[in-house]
Specification:
Elements (H helix, E strand, L loop, with lengths): L4 H21 L4 H41 L11 H15 L1 H5 L2 H11 L6 H16 L7 H19 L3 H20 L2 H12 L6 H22 L18 H36 L2 H18 L8 H8 L5 H21 L6 H22 L6 H17 L2 H12 L5 H18 L4 H8 L8 H7 L3 H4 L6 E3 L4 H10 L4 E5 L5 E6 H9 L1 H4 L5 H4 L7 E2 L4 H9 L5 E5 L7 E6 H25 L8 E4 L2 E7 L9 H4 L1 H5 L1 E12 L2 E7 L12 E7 H4 L7
Parallel strand pairs: 1-2, 4-5
Antiparallel strand pairs: 2-3, 5-6, 7-8, 8-11, 9-10, 9-11
Length: 694
């Protein structure tokens, strides 16, 4: 008999609750329980990764063997249609589940960990298991690592939901699951650990998190080796690194690899803009995806190595069983096709393409060096080092790139040139791009996750919530005696001068007045306020966020700024002081810390009931009134108007007859959607008034 999803979830929670109670009877230390959960997470993710790997092989067999039989009349040209068929299937999946389709790859895991307490709906995980399998199985020239990370994070998130982990713990295990999946797919346990640290957790290192990452990654890698074997992905003879005097060549290659990475990232962004802002507005997605699929098929018809993940082609390059002309063509094809596939709607990752581009580039570089420098350095060394340099450059993961190449090759002989090239490549990219390709995609969606949770908190607080209306304004022609008298009578240490048109003209602080006071007798009749004031006035608007304000504080020696109206820059509303801003941040940080602990409970709060958090203060859910829809939190000003804080917002999305529910921490510019439910915090006397909202 079929049980509705809610009943199934309730049964799972009840089972794990009983299991936890049994384990607690043994008085198991918390760290031991933590370690057990990490191992269980790694085992489940490892099995999921093995299934993912084998599914890609299965679908590749189905598409290319049965596809050739179906289109037998085309002969060898049948392969041209196979990628297009795969793209059409993916476009159909996007059509029926557009919201779920958008939650793709590594970026979705970063968002889940940074803003949703590690919550990933399981239907999203299922969708993004099959879509990439179809993409790569039908010849899509993309990689498995992004989908694998999402699969691992989704499995770990689901486990955390069933067990009832707090948001902070689930966040940790979701990241561990993503890293474990990388470990299993690439057979690189250390690479998986640092992938999670560098990309998913954005280098937010904590000892407890590190333990979970290691245990989960090692377990997942062990499971992978049991089922898939322990052979390195790349086969080659041990390379001759050459003399230390030739290391400058690896430095040059690192620099060039960084430039290649920048070109790829910029090209990828340009393709995204072209498709989303132009082509998809004049043609249906299925038509665009079909066209891209045919282009991939044509390329694969002439150069079959372009199909799929590309590891066999990399092994050919490592063995020098390929001409430089073919390597150049494959490099250009991979460079061009991957963004076309991904931004038209195809599913996959950029790790494997990064390795492919790096291998082809390193091979071409070795030919140039050996030919024009008259050297005889083993091309294999350049290929391996270039793979790491491009991988690290495109994805901004220097440590992970070094470890992944090392673990995938199981050879230590070229580690020094590898480290040199990767560091140079990544540095070049960071100097120009300032962020990874994953973060760039998130920024295009309006997220600022790269700045961390602290900035998300700062972005949720407006200047209007913190400013004080009292401000001392002095006419620019005020004589010195009157100016000093006002200073002595005022509690403020900063004054603002205004001109004859009542516009801000300058700033006067105690630092400007001190030297004047020592010569007061000689200057009293000569000096007016405008003579002392600094003409440069740093202003903020009432709708700026504390993130912006703290940047201004950091770049100046001032402790307060005047606040002007966003609609009229000449209208002075008050001042914002450094200490008030710090106090507001600390209060908000405490609020979010409390929220982390309550987040699991918030999922079950009934709309009509209160959840007490302190004497006189409660949390309640309220469906967003129709009058709120389409407005930002800045425009609603709930804190000022109603005395309530928006802690979180619940979104709902239906897929596969299951209602997905996710909780997000919005920033000040979040727009309310029709199905949003607000999770509000405030004094009880304020909360009881929300029934009057309309």
């Amino acid at each position: 008999m079929y049980s509705p999803p809610k009943k199934q979830r309730a049964k799972f929670r009840a089972f794990f609750s009983r299991l936890q109670s049994k384990l607690n009877e043994f008085s198991m230390p918390e760290y031991t329980m933590f370690s057990v959960l990490a191992v269980i997470t790694g085992a489940l993710v490892g099995l999921a990764a093995v299934l993912f790997h084998e599914s890609i092989n299965l679908f590749e067999y189905i598409f290319f063997n049965y596809g050739k039989k179906v289109f037998f009349f085309l002969g060898g040209a049948a392969v041209i249609l196979i990628p297009a068929i795969g793209m059409i299937i993916q476009s159909i999946m996007i059509y029926f589940a557009p919201k779920t389709a958008k939650k793709r790859s590594v970026g979705e895991v970063i968002k889940a960990v940074a803003t949703r307490g590690g919550y990933i709906p399981f239907s999203t995980t299922v969708f993004h298991f099959f879509a990439p399998v179809i993409s790569m199985g039908s010849g899509g020239t993309v990689g498995p690592e992004g989908p694998a990370a999402q699969l691992g994070g989704g499995v770990a998130s689901k486990l955390g939901q069933m067990i009832g982990l707090s948001d902070s713990r689930r966040r940790m295990f979701t990241a561990a699951g993503a890293g474990a999946a990388i470990s299993a797919v690439f057979n690189t346990p250390l690479g998986g650990v640092f992938f999670a640290l560098e990309i998913i957790l954005l280098n937010d290192f904590q000892s407890a998190t590190f333990s979970a990452l290691i245990l989960a990654s090692v377990t997942a890698s062990a499971i992978s080796r049991i089922f898939l074997g322990n052979q390195p992905a790349f086969q080659f003879d041990i390379p001759e690194v050459g003399h230390y005097e030739h290391y400058y060549l690896f430095a040059i290659m690192g620099l060039l690899a960084g430039i290649v990475s920048i070109m790829y990232i910029n090209y990828s962004e340009s393709v995204s803009q072209l498709f989303n802002k132009k082509l998809l507005k004049i043609m249906p997605r299925w038509a665009l995806m079909s066209l891209i699929g045919i282009i991939v098929g044509i390329c694969g018809y002439f150069y079959s190595d372009i199909f799929g993940i590309g590891y066999p082609a990399i092994n050919k390059i490592l063995a020098s069983n390929i001409t430089w002309q073919v390597a150049a063509v494959l490099l250009v094809m991979k460079f061009i096709l991957v963004p076309l596939i991904l931004h038209s709607g195809g599913f996959g990752g950029v790790f494997a393409p990064s390795l492919f581009i790096g291998a082809a580039f390193g091979y071409l570089f070795s030919i140039v060096v050996n030919t024009f420098w008259g050297l005889n350095i083993d091309p294999t060394t350049f290929v391996l080092v270039s793979m790491g340099a491009v991988l690290g450059g495109i994805n901004s993961i220097p440590i992970s790139a070094i470890l992944i190449i090392f673990e995938m090759t199981k050879d230590y002989s070229f580690i020094l040139p590898l480290m040199l090239a990767v560091v140079i490549s990544t540095t070049v990219v960071q100097l120009v791009i300032k962020g990874s390709i994953h973060i760039k995609h998130l920024e295009q969606e309006g997220y600022r996750i790269s700045s961390g949770r602290e900035v998300n908190i700062l972005n949720s607080i407006l200047v209007s919530d913190v400013m004080t209306p009292d401000v001392t304004l002095i006419p620019a022609q005020t004589p010195l005696p009157k100016l000093i008298a006002q200073l002595l009578d005022s509690p403020h240490s900063v004054f603002y001068t205004i001109n004859s048109e009542n516009k801000l003209a300058g700033t006067i602080t105690e630092n400007e007045l001190r030297p004047i006071i020592t010569e007061y007798d000689s200057l009293r009749e000569m000096v007016v306020a405008s003579d002392i004031a600094r003409s440069e006035v740093i202003k903020v608007t009432d709708e700026d966020t504390l993130d912006h304000v703290f940047k201004l504080f950091g770049n100046s020696q001032l402790d307060q700024f005047p606040v002007v109206s966003v609609s009229d820059s000449n209208k002075i509303l008050g001042t914002i002081r450094r200490q008030n801003a710090i106090t507001a941040y600390n209060r908000a940080s405490l609020k979010y810390n409390i929220t982390d602990g309550l987040a699991s409970e918030l999922r079950s709060i009934e709309k009509t009931s209160l959840s007490k958090v302190a004497e006189g203060y409660s949390i309640i859910e309220k469906k967003a009134p129709q009058s709120f829809v389409g407005k930002t939190l800045v425009e609603l000003k709930l804190r000022n108007t109603y005395g309530l804080e928006v802690l979180m917002i619940k979104n709902k999305n239906t897929f596969l007859n299951e209602v997905e529910e996710e909780i997000i921490i919005p920033d000040a510019h979040y727009k309310i959607k029709p199905d949003d439910t607000l999770i509000l915090f405030g004094a009880d006397e304020k909360i009881i008034l929300i029934d009057n909202w309309n």
